[in-house]
Specification:
11 helices; alpha+beta; about 350 residues; single chain; three-stranded antiparallel beta sheet
Length: about 350
Amino acid sequence: MKKLLNTLYVTSPGRYLSLDGENIVVTEKNEEIARLPLHNLEGVVTFGYTGASPALMGACAERDISLSFLTPSGRFLARVSGRQRGNILLRRKQYRIADSPDESVKIARNCIVGKIHNAKWVLERACRDYPMRVNTERLKGASSRLGDMMREARQSTSPDHLRGIEGVAAAEYFSVFDEMILRRKDVFAFKERNRRPPLDPVNAMLSLAYTLLTSMCQSALETVGLDPYAGFFHTDRPGRASLALDMIEELRAVMADRFVLSMINLGVVDRSCFLMQESGAVVMTDEARKSFLSQWQKKKQEIITHPFLGEKVEWGMVPYVQAMLLARHLRGDMDEYPPFLWK
């Protein structure tokens, strides 16, 4: 259980929420775990199926406190919200900015600066942790070039120019990705990023990790009342959660890519975990996918210090923090959206 930016996150799935006077009470197996005044909260997010009392739901609606329900894995289920928290003002602001290239690029470039910064950090971390096992000259060269692209992205005022920088930066980063794979290169060699379908085991795992991360970001955006389908960097397309895709850009390298590298370098996966289909696509076996998902859940529970808030949070909470920060910026409470810049 964690309170961040006046939002209470109840991450243990067996906890029930109820109302006692002007307080929200959190219980587990009929034992009181916590009690917090409602007037201190702007939102409540609970992971699990245990639920909340109707009295609490009514009190939250009356006080404009958003109450969101998610599955234990983080998939968005529903939200109880009051009249003002129907989010029409927030979403109208989101749509106005999304329709304005001059305004949307200001948020989009922060997401891309975050993406390039974190990709650069991953390369530098590999040089620091494995100086005798990686080609530090190649990695440091790519890191330096990414630094130049990050500075260029900060100055970008054109959506097309920003997309060009992002594409070149992604190509630069993936050109040295294979250097960070430290074992079983016969199975896990990486030549280039490919998808739809993935053509090798590394790309199969990257695609799965990106799918999981996108789902987390989509749930986080739904939780704060934003429309995950109206993005600032990715253009509108039926069925595409463009804003969720915007958000995962800054989190890909530090959450998904490093997770896949750890699965390989720690020997969690091997050749038997993958199947080659007639089409040439490589997919994970059912058992390997279950193991992958189990390890992903463990990764989400690891504690970090959020670089902007300076507070300890679980990795799995990072998309929710970023979604809250974005909503605050759109409401005018913050001058700009602060991307997740890992240190």
